[in-house]
Task: structure prediction
Amino acid sequence: MPLKSTAPAPDAHRAARPSLDVDRIRRDFPILLREIGGKRIVYLDNPATTQKPRTVIDAIIHFYEHYNANVHRGAYKLAEEATAAYEGAREKTRAFLNAASTEEIIFTRGTTESINLAAYAWGRAYVSAGDEILVTEMEHHSNLVPWQILVKEKQAALKYIPIEDDGTIDLQKAVAGISPKTRLVAITHVSNVLGTVNPVCEIAKAAHSAGAVVLVDGAQSAPHMPVDVRALDCDFFALSGHKMCAPTGIGVLYVRKSVLETMPPFHGGGDMIRQVYRDHATWNDLPWKFEAGTPNIADAIGLGAAIDYLTGIGLDAIREHEIELTRYAIQRLSAVPSVTLYGPRDARLRAGVVSFNVGDIHPHDLATIVDSKLNVAIRAGHHCAQPLMNRLNVPATARAGFYLYNTEADVDSLVEGIVQAKEIFKV
Ligand SMILES: Cc1ncc(COP(=O)(O)O)c(C=O)c1O
Result:
């Protein structure tokens, strides 16, 4: 699994320059102008959460200062404006994912809630004893634990697509794991540890021909590359707003309409009903049947602003920028003795996530040192992927993740911090 490095020349990457105007982009993010101890912040914890541009912050402030009201209910101007902005954010999300209809776009709190919605509403109705749910060894706990709970309750089984030593999935093995018993294939689009971009489209084809449905965990893909749920041919697609420049507390579950129409509700309460009688109720139209109670209006509007911001820059350009940074990071890191990198060697097979270990330095110590010396923010731990850590045979890794505002200088700071940590630990 670890990459065995041949330590390329540090400048070999410089022929291909990222095409984003990163200096201008950085000025859009107020937090990136902050200095700590007289030094700039090198923010590389983007897979955990991303920073927010001024336009997103302003959209939320503007909502609260100018048209704060509850949605769908009020017969007055403020409520109409709030409803229009909230439903406008849904339309922006539909276009962002190329869904066929806004009926297929459910706002949630994030990827975790989206997957739980699928597991509770769809899973409880459609998974029975003896059925199988197929996941990969690289799933985030969010795309594992809801299925573990479900299969235990239903006496069904959770099966795993293995991962290869280079951190990829072998498509043939994935397809071989799909059987007539498979009810669902739940797979991450991009690994939050290895960065691997999985062949979800091909897996969806095989799953559908076996009569299974497909859930794609898009937490690490939607922020970083163009996503077209119709081209992917998935039935569910989950994302988190806070990983794509929007606030925390807002996420999305896309559900193909033909699947959504057959699903019972998840939460009961206000707004999801049409009529309530003493002993039963009837349901609202899609997608509101799945949005019980007052929704997170301000942050949905913030998500809409984030989508405007990202699409204004271009997801293709963001993807290319991250490939270049990842290529550069792999080159620089693999040239440092004692660094072990995880995941595919080819930057085009992965997104901008690079996990690594440095000799026997604990990743938490490494993260503390690069922060204290150079304000480099990286993540250390199991990254909510403990089965993957077991597969890699490590308790934890350090992880750097890139976004549109990161630069090669950020990678250089990370490498400099690692060199300093090695000196302290004499590695
Ligand atoms: C691949 C993946 N799936 C799911 C999640 C869960 O996202 P959230 O905590 O926003 O619900 C994450 C978060 O790191 C992730 O990386």
User: Anything to note?
Assistant: Residues 47-48, 110-112, 140, 142-143, 188, 192, 217, 219-220, 240 surround pyridoxal-5'-phosphate (CB under 6 Å). The chain has two domains: 2-54+315-425, 56-312. Confidence is low (pLDDT under 50) at residues 3-18.
